[in-house]
Amino acid sequence: MAAREPQEMAQVAAATGAKKVHRTWDRVLVSAFLAGAYIAFGGLVAITVSSGLDPATWGTLPTLFMGAAFTLGLVLVLIAGSDLATGNMMLVPFGAMNGKLSIGDVVRNLTLVLLGNLLGALLVAYFLAVQTGVIGDADATGTAALTHERLAGIAEGKALGETPWQTFLRAVGCNWLVCLAVWMSLAATTVSGKILAIFFPIMAFVAMGFDHVVANMFFLPAAIFAGVADIGWEDVLLNWLLAGVGNLVGAVVFVATSYWYLFLRETPDTSSGTSPAADAAEPAERG
Fold it and tell me: Cα separation of 11 and 48, whole Å?
């Protein structure tokens, strides 16, 4: 089957956004929990592969390795099927712009998905990153010490090294790229095509140090659980707030609104329910 054209992608995106809302709250929560865990897995492997690489020797290449590894998270989200807040920030408002959903639907979905993402990310951060010893503590030796040092550098940079304005702008740029990855995956009709569409935008946002609210739900709590000094929960909450708002702006303004204006503005869909396009898109195009 040939790749979808942008007009078809827009129709599938709107239908998929509507379908995400038309589920029971418990299914949304479980789906979001899985996505939070998947992104945390991506963050954990990204820390692991980029640890111990001295910038004096490697320069900025560790961030490239980290970005390439982190793509695992969104691949799991989109191919296995789950609900990620940053992707829903584009898909669900897109469905609303096309006349399928109300603002209340959008708010309820994003709130529930953020909660589920947080629970999944915290589980992986505490039990599978820190309690397993993959991320060591301040007294660790060997590879655990290297991953602890790498996590500390990432978390301190995000929680303490950025101004609020920088965090917001980095979050805007992050979700512009993440939502482009989700958007381009709609063009593909094969698993390999979807993975290729996902890879480059995700690798790019991580390599540039942009802020993804769900990824930060893993990095920052994991740093606290691992005993990284100087980071408190007040720093974490402020980062999540700024990153969440920035991610929302990046998704709604630069992707959802832009492509709605280009492809669906003159053809709103006021019908209820979902279309066959959305049925064909699930679960590979959840995000």
Answer: 39
C-alpha radius of gyration, the chain, whole number: 19
Burial class (CB in 10 A: 0-12, 13-18, 19+), 32: buried
pLDDT of residue 268: 60
Longest dimension (CA), the chain: 62
Enter the pTM of the model: 0.92
State the DSSP string of 65-87.
HHHHHHHHHHHIIIIII---HHH
Q: How confident is the model at residue 39 (pLDDT cuts 50, 70, 90)?
A: very high
Position 114 in a domain: yes
107 in a structural domain: yes
**98: helix, coil or strand?**
coil
Domain count within the chain: 1
Structure tokens at 112: 């529930």
First-to-last alpha carbon distance for the chain, in angstroms, is 22
For residue 238, the one-letter residue type is L
Phi and psi, residue 9, nearest 5°:
-60, -40
Q: Which pLDDT score, from 0 to 100, does residue 277 have? A: 45
Q: Cβ distance 216 to 40 under 8 Å?
A: no
Q: Tell me, what CATH number does 249's domain have?
A: 1.20.1080.10
Q: How confident is the model at residue 139 (pLDDT cuts 50, 70, 90)?
A: confident
Could you list the residue range(s) of the whole structural domain that residue 65 is in? 6-281
8 Å CB contact between 21 and 287 = no
Give mean pLDDT, residues 215-226.
98
Distance CA 199, CA 141 (A): 33
Alpha-carbon distance 219 to 81, whole Å? 23
